[in-house]
DNA sequence: CGAGCCTGTGAGAGCGCTCTCACAAGTGGT
DNA sequence: ACCACTTGTGAGAGCGCTCTCACAGGCTCG
C-alpha cells in the first residue's frame, strides 16, 4: 500500500466481553430451569404466559444474546450461507455492476430469512479447497456460486459432498446443480427482431466471450433470429469490457462498412461501440442502430441513451438465495429457475 | 420478482453430512488421544514426529475437517469479521465502484489472515440492532463499518459494547473508533493548485453532499487553496451521482458564464459535468478545464479522458481489515490511518 | 373416587473441541 | 545411584446450548 501515513498515538479495545450472560444466568434470574429459558428464547408455545414474561424480562435485563457457536454446535446449523464469487478479483469488481447487484439481491433475500451472508472471493484453483474446507467444516449451511464460467468444477464438487449448492447461469456440461439463469437466447432474439422490425438491413453483433454461457447463448439467439429472417450473420467477439466494445466495433466497421445495426451483448461493450461509432463519424441511430444487453445504470447515460435488453440481475441473486434456502430446509427444488428478459427502448435504435 | 418461470421437475440434496469424522475418530485411527490429535491439527510443535505423521495420515484418510462451532465455542473466537455497509441498498451498489472496491480490499487482507468475511447490508435504523445482536452474539470477532455518513451512531455503539470496530472516513463528531481515511482536503488542494498552475482564472467546484466527510473535506480543501491564491470560490453542490453532476454544471454555467475550470468532487459527477459542458457547447479543456476525484475506471473513458485526483479505495479496505485484525488480537492501534491522494493528469485540463 | 391423560417444567446428556493439569518416560548432573 | 528437570502424552473438565425424557400436577371421564 503506497503512501500510508500513520497518526501518532494508539488506541485499543479490550477483547470482546467474556462475561456475557448465558442462558443459565437468564434462567436463574427468572427462577426457572435452563430448559425453560431456552424454550422461551426459541419461541416455544408450551410455556405458561407468566413464566414466559419472567424469562423475557430476564433476557432484557441481562441483555442476553444467544451464543451462536454453542447453538450451532448442537443444532448442526449455522444460519449462514456463503456466496462464492469465482473470478479474478480485478474483474469481479470492475465497474460492471453485475456481481454487486447479485450480492444485493442475495443479501435482501437472506435478510428476510434471518440468515447471514458470508462472502468468499476465490480466484486461484488453490482457493477452491479453501471453500470446500469451509463449507464442509460446517461454517455455512449452503453455498451459492456466482461464476462467470459455466465450466467451473467447484459447484459439482460441493454438491457431491452433500452441501446444498446453487449456481447462476446454466452450467456448461452436465451438472446436478440447480441454477438460476436469464433467458439470454430469447433476449438476443428480441433484440434482433426489434432491429429487423425497425427496418435495419445489415445487422451485426458484438458477442461476449464464448467461454461464458451468457456470451454463447446471446450469440446463439442472434444467429437463430437472423436465420429465421434469412439474413446473414456478421460477428465480432468482445469480452464484456468497454475497451473490447471499442475494438470490436472498429473491426466491424472495417470488415463491413455497410453495417447499419449492431446487437451488442453487454451495455458496457455497447458504450464502447457507441464511442467507436462516433469517432468513425457514424450517427446513432441514423446511420447505425445500437442495442445493448443488461440495462445497467449506464444505459440511461450514454449518448444517445441506449436501447437494450433488460436482464433482472438482482432477481438472479434473489432467486439463488431462495433456492439455496429451500435446499437447506431439505426441500426439493426445481432444477432451474429461468428469468425473463425484456426490450427497453431508448434512443439508440 | 417479475417474469419468473420454473422448469418442470425437482431436485434435492440431502442435509449436509451428519456423519463427518470428529477429532475423536481421528485420534482413534491414529492410536493417540484426542488431545494429541488436537495438538497436531493445531500445529503444536510438542508432538513427536512419528506421531504427528500418524495423525496427519488419519486426518487425510478420514477427510477430517475441524468443526467450526465446537472450536469457537471453546476458543471464543470465530475467525470471521463483519463488514457492514450502511447505505440504502440501492445506492450502495449503483455503478459507483466505491463500496465494491472496499469489499475487494477487505477480502484480500482477510484472506491472507485466514479470516472470513461476513457482509451485512443495513439501511433502516432497525437493522442496526440486528448488527449489534449479531456482533454481540459472538458471530464475529470484529466489525468494519463502511458508511458514507460520518455521523452514523453504530460504530460508537459497538465500540462501547467492547467489540473491535473500525470505520472508513473520519467520523463526524467525537468518536473513539479507529478509522481509515484518505487525504481528501489535500487532494482537493492538489486539484485546485493544478488548475491555478495551468492558468485558469475562474475556478468553480461541484462539491459532494455536505453530510458526508468526503464531501465536506474536499470542499474545505478547495476553499483553502483558492483562499491562499486570493481567489473567489464558486460553489455548486451535488450528491456524487452522475445526474447531480449534470445539474450542478448547468447551474454553474448559468450563474457564472465566465467559469473556465471546475473541480468536481467525484468522477461520476465529473462525467455528468462533462456532458453538460458539451451540451452547452463548451469545449473541454479549451474553454473549461475539468478535474475529478476518485480515479474510477470511468475516468479513463470519458471524452476527453478525465484528469482526476486518485484515491486508493482498495487500500482503504485493506487498511481497515488490518486494523480490525490487530484489534481482535488485542493489539493497540493508532487512532487513524491516512492514505494519500495524488493527481492523475489526463486530457480534461 | 380412582384410572388415565394432557400440559408444563426440570434434570441431564451430549454436540466437538481446546486446554489445563497430572503423569510417564527420558536426560543429565552430582 | 539418586534427584531434579525437561519433554511428550493422556484424562477430563467444560465452553453454552438444545432436546429427550421423566415427572409433577391438574384434568376429564367412567
Q: What integer is the average pLDDT of chain A?
A: 88
Strand content of chain A: 15-25%
Structural class of chain A: alpha/beta
Total strand count of chain A, please? 13
Could you outline the blueprint of secondary structure elements for this entry?
The structure is a homodimer of 349-residue chains.
Chain A: E1 4-6, H1 23-30, H2 34-41, H3 49-62, H4 68-75, E2 80-86, H5 89-92, H6 98-112, E3 116-122, H7 126-136, E4 142-147, H8 154-160, E5 165-168, E6 179-182, H9 184-197, E7 203-207, H10 213-228, E8 234-237, H11 242-255, E9 261-264, H12 267-279, E10 289-294, E11 307-310, H13 313-328, E12 336-339, E13 342-344
Parallel strand pairs in A: 2-3, 2-4, 4-5, 5-6, 6-12, 7-8, 7-9, 9-10, 10-11
Antiparallel strand pairs in A: 11-13
Helix pairs in contact in A: 1-2, 1-3, 2-3, 6-13, 9-10, 11-12
The structure holds a DNA duplex (30 and 30 nucleotides).
Summary of the model, kept short:
2 copies of one chain form a homodimer. Chain A is an alpha/beta fold and 349 residues long.
Amino acid at each position: 500500500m503506497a503512501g500510508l501515513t500513520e497518526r501518532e498515538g494508539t488506541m485499543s479495545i479490550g477483547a470482546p466481553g467474556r462475561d456475557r450472560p448465558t442462558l443459565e444466568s437468564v434462567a436463574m434470574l427468572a427462577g426457572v430451569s435452563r430448559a425453560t429459558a431456552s424454550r422461551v428464547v426459541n419461541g416455544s408455545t408450551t410455556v405458561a404466559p407468566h413464566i414466559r414474561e419472567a424469562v423475557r424480562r430476564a433476557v432484557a435485563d441481562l441483555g442476553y444474546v444467544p451464543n451462536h457457536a454453542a447453538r450451532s454446535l448442537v443444532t448442526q446449523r449455522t444460519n449462514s450461507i456463503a456466496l462464492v464469487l469465482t473470478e479474478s478479483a480485478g474483474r469481479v469488481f470492475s465497474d460492471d455492476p453485475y456481481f454487486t447487484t447479485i450480492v444485493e439481491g442475495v443479501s435482501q433475500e437472506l435478510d428476510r430469512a434471518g440468515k447471514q451472508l458470508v462472502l468468499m472471493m476465490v480466484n486461484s484453483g488453490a482457493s477452491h479447497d479453501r471453500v470446500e474446507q469451509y463449507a464442509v467444516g460446517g461454517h455455512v449451511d449452503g453455498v451459492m456460486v456466482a461464476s462467470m464460467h459455466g465450466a467451473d468444477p467447484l459447484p459439482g464438487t460441493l454438491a457431491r459432498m452433500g452441501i446444498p449448492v446453487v449456481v447462476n447461469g446454466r452450467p456448461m456440461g452436465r451438472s446436478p446443480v440447480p441454477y438460476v439463469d436469464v433467458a439470454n437466447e430469447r433476449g438476443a432474439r428480441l433484440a434482433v427482431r426489434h432491429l429487423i422490425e425497425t427496418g435495419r438491413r445489415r445487422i451485426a453483433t458484438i458477442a461476449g466471450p464464448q467461454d461464458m454461457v451468457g456470451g454463447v447463448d446471446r450469440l446463439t439467439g442472434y444467429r437463430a433470429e437472423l436465420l429465421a429472417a434469412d439474413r446473414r450473420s456478421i460477428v465480432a467477439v468482445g469480452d464484456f469490457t468497454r475497451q473490447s466494445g471499442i475494438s470490436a466495433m472498429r473491426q466491424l466497421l472495417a470488415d463491413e462498412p455497410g453495417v447499419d445495426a449492431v446487437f451488442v451483448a453487454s451495455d458496457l461493450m455497447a458504450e464502447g461501440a457507441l464511442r467507436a461509432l462516433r469517432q468513425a463519424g457514424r450517427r446513432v441511430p441514423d446511420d447505425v442502430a445500437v442495442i445493448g444487453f443488461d440495462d445497467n445504470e449506464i444505459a440511461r447515460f450514454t449518448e444517445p441513451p441506449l436501447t437494450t435488453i433488460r436482464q433482472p440481475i438482482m432477481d438472479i441473486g434473489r432467486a439463488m438465495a431462495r433456492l439455496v434456502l429451500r435446499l437447506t430446509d431439505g426441500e426439493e427444488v426445481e432444477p432451474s429457475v429461468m428469468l425473463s428478459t425484456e426490450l427497453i427502448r431508448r434512443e439508440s435504435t
